[in-house]
Amino acid sequence: MTAIEFVQGDITRQSVDAIVNAANSSLLGGGGVDGAIHRRGGPEILAECRKLRAGHYGKGLRTGQAVATTAGRLDARWVIHTVGPVFSRSEDRSELLVSCYRESLRVADELGARTVAFPAVSAGVYGWPMDDAARIAVGTVRDTETAVTEARFVLFDEQAYEAFTAQLR
Ligand code: AR6
């Protein structure tokens, strides 16, 4: 059984086995959560991302996939980078967002991570409406079989926190 927790705050301040990053397919950093993780985690994370790009991920990480690196100076063992879909009104991309959470949990299981912090993937720069992002995130984690014992959603602001907690009410 995975316990689902909600926290309003900064994901880079969490003490967990793995922190999920809302990355982009370049794996080379960006704004939002991604920028914050690389800033606080330090250059070790980017160095490992560059190695991934030089190896198996030469074309980048595909949308909906996930891959782990060190967590550098963060209070975690791993960062699991996943690439959310850009929201589209004309095309239903929700299966790709479902995949981000499933794949992140699969990678967490491979690593042996038991506590995992998630941001609201795709709900910032990528434009996904928060209520729908919350529904997909919580529903997918709840319905995925995993050895992770705690999935902690870390929401940056009150609106996001409210949208996520509403899913379990
Ligand atoms: N802790 C927790 N949540 C945060 C933090 C933080 N420190 N900072 C922002 N958020 P986003 P995306 C929230 O844009 O939509 C990057 O440039 C934020 O308020 O980080 O998947 C990447 O490189 C929002 O609710 O991710 C990609 O290019 C949520 O995290 C692109 O943005 C996700 O916002 C990915 O866009």
How would you describe the overall organization of this protein?
The protein has a single domain (3-168), classed as Leucine Aminopeptidase, subunit E, domain 1 (3-Layer(aba) Sandwich), CATH 3.40.220. With 169 residues, the protein is an alpha/beta fold. The chain is built from five helices and six strands. The longest helix has 18 residues, at 94-111. A six-stranded mixed sheet has the order 1-6-5-2-4-3, sandwiched between helices. The protein is globular, with a radius of gyration of 14 Å. It is 37% helix and 20% strand. It binds ligand AR6. Ligand AR6 is lined by residues 10-12, 22-24, 30-34, 36, 84, 119-126, 154, 156, 160.
Summary of the model, kept short:
The chain is α/β, with parallel strands linked by helices. Helices cover 37% and strands 20% of the residues. A 6-stranded mixed beta sheet has the order 1-6-5-2-4-3, with helices on both faces.
Q: Any chance you could write out the topology, listing elements then pairs?
A:
Elements lengths: L2 E6 L9 E6 L8 H10 L1 H12 L11 E5 L7 E6 L10 H18 L3 E4 L11 H14 L6 E6 L2 H8 L4
Parallel strand pairs: 1-6, 2-4, 2-5, 5-6
Antiparallel strand pairs: 3-4
Bound molecules: ligand AR6.
